[in-house]
Write a structure and sequence with these properties.
Blueprint (H helix, E strand, L loop, with lengths): L2 E4 L5 H12 L3 E6 L2 H12 L5 E5 L5 H14 L4 E4 L17 H28 L4 E5 L12 H20 L4 E6 L6 H6 L14 H10 L4 E4 H6 L2
Parallel strand pairs: 1-2, 1-4, 2-3, 4-5, 5-6, 6-7
Helix pairs in contact: 1-2, 3-4, 4-5
Length: 231
């Protein structure tokens, strides 16, 4: 039985991926800050018949990260870590001249430092897995210069680079940074509340993540739209 840790799993892409993995028989450790919403998600995911541990907390807290890995260990190990929890740095997004340094620090702490800290905590169990993998949820803002997306994009660019180096340092694992593309999520709504254009549901990009797990391509950066088009 495979075991995954998914951060930011109470809604959006995290929850959609949790449900897809549960449908495949994965046991799961789910993280989010909002206990009530996380509990609701865990109940829905557990309906697939797998074991689900829901642990509310902040991924920037080292003790919470240790708790997530310990819970996975009790389920049998860690086969997959998905760093999906994200912080924008400002809600709504602002130009760099207005971005507070505390906001930038928060984005870096959540999107980069906490993601690395969780992998460091889980690394012994990932190495012991027959198919250990890490997925870091990235963004096109990591590679493109969009006005107001500077702080968030910089944090995701740093996450991409850490992921690339981890893949080089851990040849026994698969380490993927994944740009999911446009999605209609609460995070995007908070970032750009005036944008009313319809966007795809997070469930629509989940098959791209499942393809990575099925085919296990080389570690690297992948775009969900391209993975979906190639199917």
């Amino acid at each position: 039985m495979s075991v995954a840790i998914i951060t930011g799993a109470s809604k959006g892409l995290g929850r959609a991926l949790a449900e897809a993995l549960a449908a495949r028989g994965w046991d799961l450790v789910l993280d989010a800050r909002n206990e009530g919403v996380l509990t609701d998600a865990a109940v829905a995911v557990a309906a697939y018949g797998t074991r689900v541990e829901a642990l509310p907390g902040d991924v920037t807290d080292a003790a919470h990260r240790a708790e997530l890995v310990a819970a996975a260990g009790k389920l049998g190990g860690v086969d997959l870590v998905v760093s999906n929890a994200s912080a924008l740095g400002a809600e709504p997004l602002v130009r760099l001249e207005e971005l507070t340094l505390d906001g930038l620090r928060r984005a870096l702490e959540v999107n980069v430092v906490a993601a690395l800290g969780l992998v460091q905590e889980a690394l012994p169990l990932l190495r012991a897995s027959r198919a250990g993998a890490v997925i870091a949820v990235s963004s096109d803002a990591a590679a493109e210069a969009y006005e107001t997306w500077g702080g968030y994009g910089a944090s995701k660019a740093a996450l991409d680079h850490l992921t690339a180096v981890l893949g080089a340092e851990e040849p026994g694992l698969r380490v993927w940074a994944v740009d999911p593309g446009n999605m209609g999520t609460d995070l995007y709504a908070a970032a750009v509340p005036d944008d009313d254009d319809p966007r795809p549901s997070p469930t629509s990009v989940v098959p791209a993540f499942l393809r990575l797990l099925d085919e296990r391509p080389a570690s690297g950066r992948y775009g969900a739209p391209a993975l979906l088009e190639e199917r």
